[in-house]
Amino acid sequence: MGSSARHNFEEVRSVHQRKSAARKGDRPLNSASSPLAVRFSRVKLFLALSRTPHGLLDLATPALAALLCYGGLPPFGVVILGLLTGFAGYTAVYALNDLVDYRVDQEKLKAAGPGRKAGYLDAIFMRHPLAQGQVSFGAGLLWVAAWAAVALAGAYRLNPMCAYIFLAGCLLEAVYCRLLRVSHLRTLVAGVVKTLGGVAAVYAVSPHPSRALVLLLFLWLFCWEIGGQNIPADWHDLEEDQRLHAQTIPVVYGPERASKIVLEALALSVALSLLLLLVAPLRFSPLLMGLALAAGGYLLLLPGYRLYRTKDPAQAAALFNRASTYPLAMLVLALASLVY
Fold this sequence. Notes:
By secondary structure, the protein is mainly α. It has a single domain, classed as Orthogonal Bundle (Tetracycline Repressor, domain 2). The protein is built from 15 helices and no strands.
């Protein structure tokens, strides 16, 4: 056999061996996979369970609330403990949502078509890995329990009131999940849950904060959550929710009225943000106030208006993604106010 023929024979045999290994589920000898890569893939499943990219963005909310109400940077130890506690809290609560909604998420995944969640922030790693069977229920429960313990210990260390707020948030999150087929007013519960991180941060840096200031912060975040997060997320799942007879704002009121609620909630959130910045201990210059208004317009009102005009689920996902960055943008402006 000539060298050219022998080379061709070896190439064909190599291709055949790789195909055979793939059919048997074996790893090819030249695979780049490693134990470290396998472990990282496993960790990504748990990060997907906790929607960690979204959770990291959410950390901006308590950080912003602490800056606004403290009037500057809190002590370094409080900052570090607060960030760790906030991360643990969001990690636990988001994963708790998937644990409580385990069966419902399985039904939704069956109802959803392939690729329906493309471009959606909460599906960057994987959408509902527990419902897809990639994470066992027991492992998910241990994950939630471990992070909840860290969050509870950190919250109690910061201020016992913070621990009570965290426990209330966990309870309300479970209630929110259970109301899926009961009432569209579950949206109000979601609004409360999402504000609790910011409220807890206020108590972490100020044991006796102004009640009026806390209420204003609560209403601002509440409207942002309703218009920029909860209703757009439910809108994105509209087809599946209709098949499951779920009770959400888009299902109960329809796209026309739901889009009006979204736009009104976002407009109120932007207005409340300006009022909050005027009365908060952290002072904003006129320039930064203008930039805060511009951030609200670009990240909330503009995508909200597009959803109102088109009624397109893709625009709902775009609004959700952009609104998720709103607290981070406001945090950047708050940090800028420390030096400007």
